[in-house]
Each structure stands twice: as C-alpha cells, then as structure tokens.
Amino acid sequence: MSLLKPRPLIPILIKPVVPVWVLIAAMAAQYAITTIGRSEDISCFLKFERIHHSTSVKERIGKDAIKLNITSECTEEQFQTQLTSRIYSIRNGKEIMIYGSNPTNQLADKRERRKAYFLDFWVECKKGATEMYRGSAEGEVSLKDGRKLSVSGNTGKYLAVKCESKAK
Amino acid sequence: MSLFEEYLTLGPWLAEEQRRDLYKFLLKTRRDKYRLDSELLLQNRILDTLFANGAILYLINDNAISYKTKRVDEPAYGDEVRSLQLRRFNFLNTARIRKFFAQAELDVLRNFPNPGKEIEENRGFGFNVYPYYDLNYYSNGRGKFLGILNKIRTRDGELLQNLLAS
Question: Domains of chain B: which residue ranges?
C-alpha cells in the first residue's frame, strides 16, 4: 500500500502569509488616507478685478455705476459659489459702505467648471465725481460632492475712480 | 415695445430694487396663468414653460417642487436651481406655488433676458440665495422676525408703479 502524501492544492510559496481580512483592512485604510489627502488639496479663492466705472451698465440702462467683478476659482470643479459683496468709499474722511449685495449664488461656469463669475455687483455713482473705492466679499464654495469651503477677499487699498466713461 | 417688454431685455443690468418690483409685478399680473400652471403641475408633476429668453422645467419629487432652466436655444437643462417643500393640502400650496413661479421667472430673466442691443456673455447662472417670498430675503438670512420688520419698512419702487400704470 503506497503512502503518497497528497499534494497541496495551493503551493506553499504563494499561500498568503497575512490573513485576508488584514489585507482588506489595510487597503481600505490606504484608500481613506488617499481620499482625505486629496480633499485637503482642493483650494478655492476669489479674484477681484479693479473697481471701475461700468460701460455696460451705462450702455444698457443709461446709469453711471461703479462695478466690482469677482471670479471664484477652485483647483477642481465646483458646483456653485455663494457670495455677499460690499463696496466702500471714503467720504468726509470716513469709510462708509455704499453698496451691500444680497447673498448671491452663482452656478459654476458651463465651460470652465472650476470658476464662477460674479458680474452684477454695481452701485450708481454721481456723474463726473472722483471717489476712492474698495471692495470686499465673503462666502462659500460648494463642491460637487457637497462639501463647502469658505472664501473671502478684497480689492486691497483704496483706488480713485472717476464716475465717467472713458473716451473712445 | 411696452415698458415691461423693455425690461425683459435688461436681465443682468437690473438693480436689486428693480428685480423686486418686477417680481411683484409678475405676481400681480400673471395670477391667472400661475393658477392654471399650478393645477397642471400638481396634476402631471412636470411642467415646462418659457419666459424671456429661457425655458423652465418644473418637477415635483418627494413632495417638493424644484426647477431647472436653460436658455431657449440650449440643448439641455442645467442643475436644479431652487426647490419648495409642499404642504400636505393643496389649498395651502396655491399661493406658495404662485410665488415660486414668479421667483423662477425673475431668476430666468436675470440670466436669460430677451436679446437687446448686445448680450454680455455670462455663462453661469446667478440668483439671490433667499427668494423674495422668504422673509430671510429682507434680513439677509438673519431670521424671519427681522425679515418682517424690514419688509414692513421696504416700500415698492417707482418701477412697479410705472409698470402697473403702463
């Protein structure tokens, strides 16, 4: 009677040394770390154009206005940005707020989903008068996965702007 | 061109007070249309309408109305813009749905006005976070009580009078 030892179905060399459940747990942990790391990399910021006398407002509705254009930009795609903006002026040596927008949502640009353009923050000005202006805004960006990131910024120092269209 | 038609071309150039006046004007003058549209929407749970240079798609899902919109010549609707939770009984919803319709049309006008002299290309969609029918609009989100106080102090603008008189 032969006493042949049965061959193992899986050769010893490729038998897992580490239990399968430990392997799965390690992979899950790695995935979580990678995902969290990636979300921390996303950043959003506001870009402010120079405050200016608006030619488009003048042409369309005949009013002289000071306009503040803002772009909300992220390093990845966003869903929308919510902003509240303000325009300040200096009158009699004091800083006063001459415009405060309602909280405004702007859906991401259809062609560049990383950006949302705010182009309708403006306030009427007195034709021919030169005043010092600065602008600020704050709000939050909603990303496509529902997370929200705070954003804020301003135009920097006061800038003199004449309430008059530039001669063509 | 009537005064109202003229304002349908001004979209993004409207001041906040003018937008609010237009909203009130729509509520006053399109009451019958909104009532019929409301019945159709509640019955079919879907409704598409046109306003200014935009198309609006209203949907009822999970007892809430929402709307999506697009410029009339665009192929597909964009993301959902606003939603309104419905009450249990329809008679409680009638006035709320009318206000929702007027707000939606005002949002569309702001972004997709009728073609005028020239259109400044604006490829996103901008709208007030708080709709005019929400008291939070009048308090910039600082609560309904403050909203009531501010609403009482807010007077109708000249535009509303001019539009109603025209």
Answer: 3-165
Task: Write down the residue that tokens 């609403």 correspond to.
Answer: B151
Asked if A102 and B128 come within 8 Å (Cβ–Cβ), the reply is: yes
Q: pLDDT by residue (tens digit) across A125-162?
A: 999 999 999 999 999 999 988 999 999 999 999 999 99
Whole-Å CA distances, A6 to A1, A11, A13, A17, B104: 15, 12, 16, 21, 77
Q: How many domains are there within chain A?
A: 1
Contact A120 B124 (CB under 8 A): no
Phi, psi of B24 (to 5 degrees): -65, -35
Interface predicted TM-score (ipTM): 0.86
Residues of A with Cβ-Cβ distance to B79 under 8 angstroms:
79, 107
Residue A152: inside a domain:
yes
Report the phi/psi class of residue A128: left, alpha or beta, with left for phi > 0 and alpha for psi in -120 to 50. left
| pTM across the whole model | 0.81
CB contact under 8 A, B13 and A118: no
Is A167 within a domain?
no
Local structure of residue A75 (DSSP, 8 states): S
